[in-house]
Input
Amino acid sequence: MDMNKEQNKIILSQIDNLLEQHNSLLDAYQKLEPLVLGLFDAERMSIFQRRRQHLDLVARFKTGDEIREIKVAISPQSIAGFVALSQQPLIISDVNDAGELKQIHPRLKFENKFDKTSSFTTHDILCVPILNAGVLLGVVQFINKKQGTFNDNDLGIANDLAALLGNKFRFELGGTKQPFQYLVHRNQISESALEQLMSSSKEHKQIVQRLISEHRIPENEIGQALSVHYQVPYLAYLPDKYHLFQSESRLNLSYLKRNLVAVIADAAESPFVVMAEPNNAALLMEVERALGIESYEISVGLPDDILQYLGEAGASHKGPGEMDDILDEISTSTDDLDEQTDELSDDAPAVVRLVSRILHDAKRMDASDIHIDAEKGAPTRVRMRVDGVCRDITQIPASHHSAVIARIKIMANLNIAEKRIPQDGKLAFRMQGKSVEVRVATIPTVAGEGVVMRILAAGGAMPMDKLNMSPRNMEMLKTMVKKPHGILLVVGPTGSGKTTTLHAVLGYLNTPEKKIWTAEDPVEITQPGLQQVQVSPKIGFTFASALRAFLRADPDIILIGEMRDKETAHAGIEASLTGHLVLSTLHTNSAPETITRLLDLGLDPVNFSDACVGILAQRLIRTICKNCKEPYQANQSEIEFIKRQYGEALSHELNITPELTLYKGKGCDSCGGTGYKGRTGVHELLSMTPELRALVYKEASVSGLKAQSTQDGMRTLIQDGIYKVLKGDTDIAQVQIISGTE
Ligand SMILES: [Zn+2]
Output
């Protein structure tokens, strides 16, 4: 063994010498080939070199004086192409086993052109990427080990060989050791200044910004440096030439912004993936998967240019500036802003910065809401709600009201031309490196269009333990969602907190080894690690089509925002029966009613009851204000009400004594005199027991299903509400509201 290792080292150093003695790989090829094949005991090899500034690989062979070339795209359509794309080595024991290939990537194919035109048959392959300074420069592939199949030992040697080849390739291509090295060669910055700047900057984006602002290096020069290093073309922000590629709506915008990647297209609709750091193979694969396009070009772009392509018009190198300065600028501006110039005037830099300033101030003051209200014949009022109280913050000249509203609508992706009906949307901005999300609602009034913005709490999903579920429900829900496959439905009317619950569940399940895809309309809560997609029925991208796309992307867990129709419901059940955990929602009032609704849609009772792991019905009720909450002794009619609503047969569970203590809110400043502050969920969790399943097969009535579920331990929304009254979370009036909606 050690003898072999020694010998391998000697051969590797011979290879290194050979490469050094020849100008190019091609010149060294004939001497190199027998050495390398001997090292791996392989029948054939191909060394692919990345073509400069292209998204493909080319392998050149020299047989006698003849040079042959094979070109392969960097894509999952071939083994070499996939290794280049993923930048991960691969050992395939049988290339003709479609199942083995499919496990690696659903679109992976073995290109057997070679085998077909000759008597050669390929069995096993070892393929490793050739990287240098983190940039992909090629791929080396070995075919058919003579004795046995390729193993981890071969992989280790292949990695050593790839490192030697990587050095050679970088030299051939004139590549640089780090992204900004070329700026030193061009005398734009000294080596030591660059080193100092890089060591004192946190991330790529900051380095680029400082090269521009502190060292006054033109953006074009920085782009060239990145192009030389990453070996892909540099693409500047050219809004006249390129636009966002349409299918990009499938990718979550905040995900793209966070990762500094945009997919754009030219006038001929050819897609280009522009990345700040194009050596990020994992990111490129995510984008490639979500887009599902066969061919595209890859380029490097500056971070702010990418953000501008993604619609962040304020992504300039300057901060927004101070509110007073901006307002000064606006009031001295001679531009006459009237209604007709709305669409143009939102680009006026002062307005852009003003909106940005308002958002930043709101976040800094920890405001929950921002109100921008039109006033007839007077300046526009900007108010912010801080700790529940609205405060006047500033005024905007009436002449700029429309431009400010238009700017906000553009940021939130709303229709700026539509001013007569209310619209809802969402925007995100960055502050101190963190993304802040804002929900935007426009309200047409007689004085003009107003906007209310709610700043969403950072952190995304609510922890599952904060859902305030009863211990039985919490324990059961955790067991249900830990199952590797099946379907869990969360049901209730609009505004019953279904999305919050589903995201809490996803947050609980979200670990690096789980692949989670969500299709939502709209995406309200974002979580790192999830692949979140906004569906868009207008362009035919429905929940059902998203689900089909996800199934090709190797998911473990899928969230389908809503099962609106038979097609989606069918597809959801299918997916859960084929090894995925599917989460979804329905607009039904109770858990048992959900079953009959789905069977009415034409779902097969056997398939559905096999797939279903549970149904959670829920509502939101108001909670008693903690500031003015006080205990009191329940009177006889309240005790009667509680027993009657909970059910006489089960009321023993409540341990009600004649001296029952309940709570109410007296009313205070903090709750605006209402006695309530905040909301909590009430839940009804049905589990699919064998007894219940038998009833589903028979397509039993809602009351039959409800009786069996109750016997199995389910407690209804009202019962859970009463439990929360006794716990002191809420009062009887809130339970009466639930019984009115059930
Ligand atoms: Zn209060």
Q: What stands out?
A: Residues 314-319, 334-348 have pLDDT under 50 and may be disordered. Residues 2-173 form a domain with the Beta-Lactamase fold (CATH 3.30.450.40). The pocket of zinc ion is lined by residues 625, 627-628, 665, 667-668, 670-671, 675 (CB under 6 Å).
